[in-house]
Amino acid sequence: PVFEGIFEAAALAVEKGLATVKQADVITAKALKMGVGPFTAHNLAGGNPLPQHGLDEMHTKIMAWYKSPRLLDDQVKAGKPWETPGKGEVVEYSPGTYEAVSNRVMGAYFGMVCEIVESGIANIGDMEMAIDVGLVMAPPFELMNQIGVNRALELVQAYAKENPGFKVAGLLTKQAASGKPWKIPRVLREDKGNIAIVKIRRPKVLNALNTEVFEQLKEIFSAIQKDPKIKGAVLTGFGTRAFVSGADIQMLASQKTPEEAEAGCLRSQAVPNLIENLGKPVVCAMNGLAFGGGNELAMACTARIAARGQKVFVAQPEPRLGIIPGCGGTQRLPRLIGIEKAWAMLRSGNPISSARAKEFGLIQEEVEGDLIEAAIDWVRRISSGKAAVPTIPRGPISIPPKLPEVDIGHLSRKIDSLIQKTILEGAKMSLEEGLKLEARTFGECLLTQDMKIGMENFMKNGPKVNAGFVHH
Fold it and tell me: Are 233 and 198 in contact, with CB atoms under 8 Å apart?
């Protein structure tokens, strides 16, 4: 009922004389970060009468506020499209008009989703993802956290006061009283017998890691560690395209000083360190590509398996952003596959296939069938001693007398020198000390011009446009 309810709220604002159809369309789209406004969406659906029928059904089955507005009844009866903004048309409105319409559509939006979650039909995580992906608009609980849960409650209460039959969910009142933001599940746990299945779910950003994800992973794996019923775990990602596409670029870009960046790395490293030292086997079921932090997270697991036939599978693309890996890549990759192979991967940022990853020893198996079932089988065999997997050396590792030449192309020579230093100096240390070195050196990247150039290029142009590094 969410889209229909947003349409109703916008239409009622027009009926009350708060805005024209065009104004309500663009204001609603802006306030809720929709791809197109509700009236435009109705036109694109061919003036479908389903919202009219649906709203009248919801009136009796969900809450009395839902009801096809007169504006919609008249339009369906006339069989005409709404007069919406043309391509490139700029619709003028005053700040007062924007506030009047946006407050009402947000109040209706927040009230509806809280009522749906309170009814038990969906949980917060499922509701958030369904709206984000299915309706292409601002996820509601994230938006409430951004404006403040108390402010969200005020908007809902004001809307309910003005619109008889509109419910204020106790769920929202309780959350506002707690003084805390909504906790939105980005990492899910489901136990299958004595094996915990942990899934990272941020599909719109290919399961990229951010502070929220790291915190939830830490919380979930800490609980798994203490749970006597659980013998091991499977770590995987949502969907088929990516296990984890890397660290969220906004999280990286928000770091302003070397000290802040170093501290951020150490916080992030705490999660793979926890997984590595869990005392129970953790098998990473790599359901898609694993770039940057995704591969770093996977390498901390006891074993790794992957869906077969992935041409672009694993990479440490950090030098393309003007940074070095900061979550263990420069230390675990050389220890896992050898310095020679890791040397090229870490310095070039180029990806390898799942077949090559198996050849390198980065993964234990390419799986044709059900990846999760295969991972569960690996956990059981490891925990029973029936399968042996190589462990990452905790001490120093030997450095070959000669390392392969690597063509780094357009990449920053300044950042490349930091990568080389971190690999070679870290190899002479314990893993624990090497990880601290990596965090410090990541902080040094903030002192370079090339980190700024790389980050700005990625945020502006995406990964396909090479940054114009100046090697300083």
Answer: yes
> Are 270 and 325 in the same domain?
yes
**What tens digit of pLDDT does each residue of 126-181 get?**
999 999 999 999 999 999 999 999 999 999 999 999 999 999 999 999 999 999 99
8 Å CB contact between 141 and 184: yes
Final residue in a domain of this structure, among 154, 178, 202 = 178
User: Domain holding 76: CATH number?
Assistant: 1.10.1040.50
Query: Residue 335 falls within a domain, yes or no?
Result: yes
For residue 139, give Cα distances in angstroms to 125, 129, 204: 10, 7, 11
Angle at the Cα of 466 (from 463 to 467), degrees rounded to 5?
Answer: 105
pLDDT band at 252 (very low <50, low <70, confident <90, very high): confident
Q: How far apart are CA 203 and CA 238, in angstroms?
A: 7
Q: Where in the sequence is the domain holding 323, given as residue range(s)?
A: 187-461
Domain boundary pick from 178, 200, 228: 178
**In a shared domain, residues 98 and 191:** no
| Counted domains in the chain | 2
CATH of the domain at 230: 3.90.226.10
Residue 466 resides in a domain: no
Query: What are the pLDDT digits (tens) for 287-322?
Result: 999 999 999 999 999 999 999 999 999 999 999 999
Do 155 and 203 lie in one domain? The reply is no
Q: How far apart are CA 232 and CA 196, in angstroms?
A: 7
Question: For residue 34, which amino acid is it?
Answer: M
Q: Are residues 49 and 73 in the same domain?
A: yes
Number of helices and strands (H, E) in the chain? 22, 9
Which of 425, 402, 414 has its CA nearest to residue 452?
414
What is the pLDDT, as a whole number, of residue 193? 97
Query: Does pLDDT of 453 surpass 90?
Result: yes
Residue of 240, 220, 207 whose CA lies nearest to 306: 240
| 438 and 349 in a common domain | yes
The reported pLDDT for the residue numbered 235 is 99
Contacts of 289 (CB under 8 A, 6+ apart): 206, 241, 242, 243, 245, 310, 312, 313, 314, 315, 351
What does the alpha-carbon distance between residue 214 and residue 202 come to, in Å, rounded to a whole number?
A: 13
Q: Is the pLDDT of residue 47 over 80?
A: no
Helix extents (H) in 393-448: 413-427, 431-445
Locate 193 and state its tokens: 């017998």
In a domain, 52, yes or no: yes
Structure tokens at 20: 């024209």
The rounded distance, in Å, linking the Cα atoms of 18 and 10 is 10
Based on the fold, state whether residues 84 and 209 are members of the same structural domain. Answer: no
CB hemisphere CA count around 424 (13 angstroms): 11
How far apart, in whole angstroms, are the C-alpha atoms of residue 257 and residue 255? 6
